[in-house]
């Protein structure tokens, strides 16, 4: 979607979405209510598409304008986890992984439907790797052939604390309420290893990677860290 626009939903998902104009970052402006409104428990962007998971389905919206006009949808009565990249839509959870092509958003097409140990609470994609974060581990799945996904490796975490995930090619950043930030080297998906940690002053409630910056939402405010990756492609 246009870089001067963002789409936001409330934490509970029940209040729907807002399109926000950030062309002047000092004066963000809420725009008219999107045509693709309704509940929104997860909102993702994939190019000019906005992917929204509500209580019963996945909605695919046109993100090239703030109106967010509906383009297509896919049923999701189980409330599976969702991730999207390069016209692939991935649904995971309940030991089930579904990969769809949304190259034609009006007619999503199943590429694979695989029984696999997938939690789905927090999914992310970078490059050819799908990341499935759960309380005590990070599971890596090779999706280089989306018709035949293969589980590659597992990074075991200390404790049993659920966190948030920011994937980048060759690395994954994990946040948790109390343990700060973990940077995991996933350049070999079969053998992910801890590359570094950063202890925050308060709980981390979300995390994202933008170019060379790591942005973390914490209990005491927004934390921005400069971080260098030896890989060029980031999400």
Largest sheet geometry: 4 strands, antiparallel
Spatial separation of the terminal alpha carbons: 14 Å
Helix count equals: 0
Q: Would you list the SSEs in sequence order as H and E?
A: EEEEEEEEEEEEEEEEEEEEEE
> Can you say what the CATH homologous superfamily of the domain at 1-120 is?
YVTN repeat-like/Quinoprotein amine dehydrogenase
User: Strand sequence of the main sheet, in spatial order?
Assistant: 4-5-6-7
Main CATH class of the domain at 1-120: Mainly Beta
Rg calculated over all Cα atoms: 17 Å
Q: What name does the CATH topology of the domain at 1-120 carry?
A: Methylamine Dehydrogenase, Chain H
User: Helicity range of the residues?
Assistant: under 10%
- Summarize model confidence as the mean pLDDT: 82
Question: What does the overall shape look like?
Answer: globular
Which consecutive residue ranges, at least 5 long each, have pLDDT under 50? 10-14, 231-235
Structural class: mainly beta
Word description of this protein:
With 235 residues, this protein is mainly β. It has strands at 5-9, 17-21, 29-30, 42-46, 49-53, 57-62, 70-75, 81-85, 88-92, 96-101, 109-115, 122-126, 129-133, 137-142, 150-156, 163-168, 171-176, 180-185, 193-198, 204-210, 213-218, 221-226.
